[in-house]
Amino acid sequence: MSLDRAKPLLLPLALMLAFELWARLTHLQSDSLAPPSAILAALATALADLSIPIATRDTLFAAFAGLSIGSAIGLALGIAFGISRALDRLMEVTVEAIRPIPSIALLPIALIALGFGYRMEIVIVAFACVWPMLIMTRSAVRSIEPRLMEVSRALRLSAPQRIAKIVIPAALPRIFVAFRLSAGIALIVAVTVEIAINPIGLGAGIMLAQQALRADLMLAYLVWIGTIGYALNILLIAAQRHLFGRAALAGDNP
Amino acid sequence: MNRAAILWRVASVLVAAGFIAAWQLVTNLKLVSPVFLPGPDRAWAALVRGFSSGDLAGKLIGTLEHMTYGWFAASIAGIALGALIGSSKMMRAYVAPSLEFLRPLPVSAIIPVAIAMLGLTQGMALFVIAFGAIWPIMLATIHGFAAVEPRLYEVARSLQMSRTAIIGKIALPSALPDILAGMRLSLTVALILSVVCEILAGLDGLGHWVLLSARAFRSADLFAGVILLGATGYLTSIAMSLVEQRLLAWQTAAR
Fold first, then answer.
1. In chain A, residues 185-224 whose CB comes closer than 8 Å to chain B
2. How many domains does chain B have?
3. Fewest Cβ atoms closer than 10 Å to its Cβ: which of A42, B38, B178, B217?
4. Tell me, what CATH number does B180's domain have?
5. Cβ(A95)–Cβ(B18) under 8 Å?
6. Which residues in chain B are contacts of A102 at CB distance < 8 A?
């Protein structure tokens, strides 16, 4: 049992050890690589002088603000399209025309309209988060047991009541899966916008470290961004298990 | 398609046309400064002008080249690595968890590292695009290999097939739906990363075009570029689903 647990750790540990040894033996001087010990040291310094925590706060703030706005819009549209087949069919061409625009292509538009800073990043993240939310909510609402809708009609619930009491609770597990995927997308888009152009947050930090030829700091940022992404994913999966049990995983595509 | 479906489609196109008309109205009334928001007429004119002068076509080809080269490299490497890892229990136990750990990493974070190693070059862009696009394909391949019906492996063993024959004749075909789904996902990733790399490294392509247009406040050219990028995303995804239908025709027929 203990060996099975250790197996997944073996490869990364061995790689890091080999790299450390190689770097030490060759007295590595490089603008792009640094031994793991130097990376960890740089990470510790950057954490201690608060540059990484502040950058993390900026990135997460932009990502979550965009995520909330985008998923609220996606949720509202998804419910509307899911309930009304006519509306869905009428909007089909419009949605199919806007959806394939890569979110990052909006970057220059957001840049001239809003300038640098949180606002443009939030707008781009929100745009990226609307679509997975819309599509998965729509299919979740459509797959609600039809008898539940009959019950709501028999009880003469008004439309808002029907949405609050029947539609949202019934579709919630799958909506949460959509939210989890959107959260991952939000973080990716936020970091990408920062790397490409926006001078705040983790993405700007890693670009700055690269331009200063601080390979150790750059890789420390990379490790930290990876850890944030992993932690966010783990956290949301745990929340999903806790809130909905195994039911939620049924709607999850691998 | 029956008549009702066609009618719905026409109505849907009309709604989209209505949105474009509203956009035109907003710009005609100058509700939003024309510096930020050109009307559809100006965006269309910029598109036509860009194509007739050949500028825009060159940029489009540049982006398509980055995207397809990176994506092809990622597809080949991803399927090969995925097959290698997915077909061996030992590799699955040792390597797959590390890959799962790397999956949520925002791929664009690799860009600074690639710039430090390779400079602001085409090679850097191809490396980044391939690196980003490989994950969905590789993980889908591993998943597809792990999910092969076990009885098929038993059949292969009783036929005394070699490992390569098992991979080629049993595992790959039955993992194909997963692999194609992964490749479709990667296509989007490849397009996004092409644009980011072009913006950062000033490589010839639509990403560079939209950034330059934005810097010069030529909003009509900017919108023309964004429209082209949307069209690229749409058309490549349609092409991919056609390929998918064709390659998976045997599966639907068997059901």
1. 187-188, 191-192, 195-197, 202-203, 206-207, 209-210, 213, 215, 218-219, 221-222
2. 1
3. B217
4. 1.10.3720.10
5. no
6. 188, 191-192, 195, 229-230, 233
